[in-house]
Amino acid sequence: MSSDHPHRKLHVMFFPFMAYGHMIPTLDLAKLFSSRGAKSTILTTPLNSKILQKPIDTFKNLNPSLEIEIQIFDFPCVELGLPEGCENVDFFISKNNDDERHYMIFKFFMTTMFFKDQLEKLLETTRPDCLIADMFFPWATEAAEKFHVPRLVFHGTGYFSLCSAYCIRVNKPQTRVASSCEAFVIPDLPGDIVITQEEIIDGDEESEMGKFMIAVRESEVKSSGVIVNSFYDLEPDYADFYKSVVAKRAWHIGPLSVYNRGFEEKAERGKKANIDEVECLKWLGSRKPDSVIYISFGSMACFKNEQLLEIATGLEASGKNFIWVVRKNDGDKGEKEEWLPEGFEERVKEKGMIIRGWAPQVLILDHQATGGFVTHCGWNSILEGVAAGIPMVTWPVEAEQFYNEKLVTQVLRTGVSVGARKNVKVMGDVVDKAVREVLVGEEAEERRRRAKKLAKMAKAAVEEGGSSFNDLNSFIQEFSS
Ligand code: UDP
């Protein structure tokens, strides 16, 4: 909290959706508020509290006077019709069958309604100054309203994708094209952004998921505003458009990942890595600057063997250094890893490494040897890549990731697209070409120059006087009074 504006201690409650891509930035957000003098309480379930406790303990050890705590809500999975221990979307990643996985994830979304009573009781007894609840908890606005607690929405994505989705929803341009691969400009959206129908994922409004998303939007309209993990200079036109056209109120406070400055804080975001972090950094330290490509598809995307085989083929053909993170279905685990070409690891052992499971992503991206990032365009990954000043190979898999790709390739111009389409395999030669294109050559240097400039802006945004610093200040002042 700014010393010029002494206010009483603000109490903020945070309620993240139980998925790594939502919990990681929310934890950063809670730490940020606490480091600016607020008391932060994170609401979550018993198993998810275990994920959050270690980074919170580290934060408290570093900052003993700051206040941050977890409040645990009951979540009786079996009673709710979910498998035992299923408290995080991560639980479903190992489901082999796509349909089964989607069905279970939807069911998971619906069962979170169970929290409403517990949330109401807690709000009634504690009366925090505000509740920053995930977009996927549409019932939270009404729950908070009952006790006159302002509810803020946290989407976890940036301005650009929120604006794109809005313009497409309002104008429905995809209904006027002759074919699903015909490119068109998104109406009303600044920047003449080109997209195709097959990249638009705002599904059928009549479907159960479509109805749920309508409820999400309605609850946002009734909320007190939106907290956005972004910074003004990254997407100024879209920040302005969002604030003036789409949302009632919005505050940007990111990029949240950059507040983690020490080794431990960077290493402890999410799961325990399936590699020794020090060894990983040592390996990177033995490589030339900007020579390593890092490949990761976030916490949710899980490719089939035939797609992984193409990635392996492309990486080997590129001849570049790499760190490749692979999340696999349990059903595919066996003695023999069918997703790797025969003898692959032996042949590439001087060049690269595969991390099976979870990687210390921010540590890797921030290392000077890392020169490119093949990403599924999840918003946290994009921001982490931006903050590290790294050009990207964009490979969206689902949801708003296709919009995020357009920001990187058409607005920031720091990325090369593999031309991904839902359920279409990307071939090895495309991977090979994109990896080489992003790492070497004149255009690669231009992209890198732009990426490094953005990284500087990202850091400046959170420093005193920066756009995110100021937005957070005004939020704190408004909700403290
Ligand atoms: N992440 C990580 N190691 C991994 C995979 C993911 O640390 O092996 C982190 C990553 O740094 C990011 C988050 O998990 O903070 C993933 O969020 P994102 O929005 O990129 O994608 P999602 O997983 O939600 O699709």
Report on this model:
- 45% of the residues are buried.
- The chain has 2 domains: 11-258 and 462-480, Rossmann fold (3-Layer(aba) Sandwich), CATH 3.40.50; 272-459, 3-Layer(aba) Sandwich (Rossmann fold).
- The strands form 3 sheets. It has a 7-stranded parallel beta sheet, with helices on both faces. Strands 12-11-10-13-14-15 form a 6-stranded parallel beta sheet, with helices on both faces. It has a two-stranded antiparallel ribbon with strand order 6-7.
- It has helices at 20-35, 46-62, 98-111, 115-126, 140-146, 159-171, 208-222, 236-246, 263-267, 277-285, 305-318, 344-348, 361-365, 379-387, 401-412, 428-439, 442-462, 467-480, and strands spanning 11-15, 39-44, 67-72, 130-134, 151-154, 183-185, 194-196, 225-228, 250-252, 292-296, 321-326, 352-356, 370-375, 392-394, 415-417.
- With 481 residues, it is of the alpha/beta class.
- Uridine-5'-diphosphate binds at residues 20-21, 24, 269-270, 296, 298-300, 325, 358-359, 361-362, 378-381, 384.
